[in-house]
Amino acid sequence: MKAVITVIGKDSVGILSRVSSCCADMGVNIVEVTQSVLQDMFAMIMLVQIEEGTVDLDSLREGLDKVGKETKTKVHVMHEDIFNSMHKI
Amino acid sequence: MLETKDILETINMIDNENLDVRTITMGISLLDCVDEDIDRASAKVYDKICRYAQDLVKTGEDIEREYGIPIINKRISVSPIGMIAAPCQSKNVVKFAKALDKAANTLGVNFIGGYSALVQKGFSSGDYALIESIPEALDITDKVCSSVNIGSTKAGLNMDAVKMMGKIVKQTAEKTSDRDCIGAAKLVVFCNAPEDNPFMAGAFHGVGEADCVINVGVSGPGVVRAALAKDGDGKSIDEIADMVKKTAFKITRMGQLVAKEASKRLCVPFGIVDLSLAPTPAVGDSVAYILEEMGLESCGCHGTTAALALLNDAVKKGGVMASSHVGGLSGAFIPVSEDAGMIAAAKRGTLDITKLECMTAVCSVGLDMIVIPGDTSAEKISAIIADEAAIGMVNSKTTAVRLIPAIGKKAGDELNFGGLLGTGPVMPIREGDPSVFINRGGRLPAPLQALKN
């Protein structure tokens, strides 16, 4: 399945690196990344591929929540389909 | 690839604008649980519900986590118990209420609906006993919800049932007066009750339904209000309608996704998505605020009915394209105690029961969660029910009445139900005694609209 990770918060050094290391540690492949910093606000969106049998969404979320707390950002991990169904016909 | 702004919009809707799926409701037919012996019948009811819905709560929570969408309630609706009770020799129907409540507690669902009777044309065996038992049933249970359909466009209004329900509503409030009259908040009197409604307190599993189905009720007044607040300035009414439609479309697509996923995981057919805009007492998640965002100083002032008509219609038009099957109540709800904006308007005095009655002619449901003075006579409650049912009957739409007589309290006081049911200011009702009219009994004939064939 594909999931969307969003990280929103105040910009600081190493957010991207910590989020991607967390993904790598769990065997989650990053398919696409977009990132923008607007007036100190950091917004990153990652599309990741989670292969069956590697890691479940809950553990990934737990790991990323920890990163979110450390970097003082808000992290969401959501199934890709929610965005597809709401914004694509 | 997904657009960044779309992703951020969805997350903002969930985080800041109270976007949620209000309920996944599993409808379960109990027609195969009938038995002459009431103990055996209620044991069968308990067993079947527990067997069918054993994974409902877990599946709801799994979907919630995986998709990141809050799913506020998991509920069950069952066949009208009036029918299931019909063959029982004992008329101690409350045993069914106990079985339903026990099943709801075992499964961990939030509500179970279907302690109901359909008496729009007359009482059949079982219905009378069921209605009589409603005050006790709602007193001794926590999660059971009850509804009675007293009229329809096809059948007219059963005025004997209307008369009876005035008493029942009052008795239910009296029995639970030590708990802010909460019993009456779990009792709805319908005209044209839908058979696939996932919302409480009026949900029951209709007789034409499959053995088991999944119905989903979406929510999202906060999202609509935020969309209007962001881009609505200086826009014409048609542009406002368009904005509501687009937002309703997105909300419903989310509901459809959840419904399909729940149906797949539970191996239960998908029934319908109910498009309703259901408010919660949370600040911002209010239908009244949407109307005010359209340009009314206060909900209830002149113009409210027109604004609500626009909202109700646009929600349906946007939502209907987003789901393969739409049903239930589908429209905008206006429950006073569950809506921060309505509560504020009622307290200010701009919103009264007469204006609410007008509003129900153009939106879904009816006089919902309205707290009235505790000394209101049963006949007056019946008359309010009759007025509201007449609106539904003539306009071929669902109307419902959920009044809470605040025992021992008068206009200006307040009841506090907590949770989704909110807080209700006691609203004054109109003077004059309708008891001779109500005590006539009989059947109010169906209107010409019934003769469509």
If you had to describe this structure to a student in words, what would you say it looks like?
The complex is a heterodimer of chains A (about 90) and B (about 450). Chain A is an alpha+beta fold and about 90 residues long. Chain A contains three helices and four strands. Chain A has one domain: Alpha-Beta Plaits (2-Layer Sandwich), CATH 3.30.70. Chain A is globular, with a radius of gyration of 13 Å. In chain A, β2 and β3 form a beta hairpin. The relative contact order of chain A is 0.30. In chain A, α1 runs antiparallel to α2. Chain A has a four-stranded antiparallel beta sheet with strand order 2-3-1-4. With about 450 residues, chain B is of the alpha/beta class. Chain B folds into two domains: about 160 residues, Anaerobic Ribonucleotide-triphosphate Reductase Large Chain (Alpha-Beta Barrel); about 220 residues, Anaerobic Ribonucleotide-triphosphate Reductase Large Chain. Helices cover about 45% and strands about 15% of the residues of chain B. In chain B, the strands form two sheets. In chain B, strands 1, 2, 3, 4, 5, 6, 7, 8, 9, 10 and 13 form an eleven-stranded mixed beta sheet that branches. Chain B has a two-stranded antiparallel sheet with strand order 11-12. In chain B, α3 packs across α10 and α9 runs antiparallel to α10. The longest helix of chain B is centred in the middle third of the chain and has 30 residues. The radius of gyration of chain B is 21 Å and the shape is globular. The chains are: A alpha+beta (about 90), B alpha/beta (about 450).
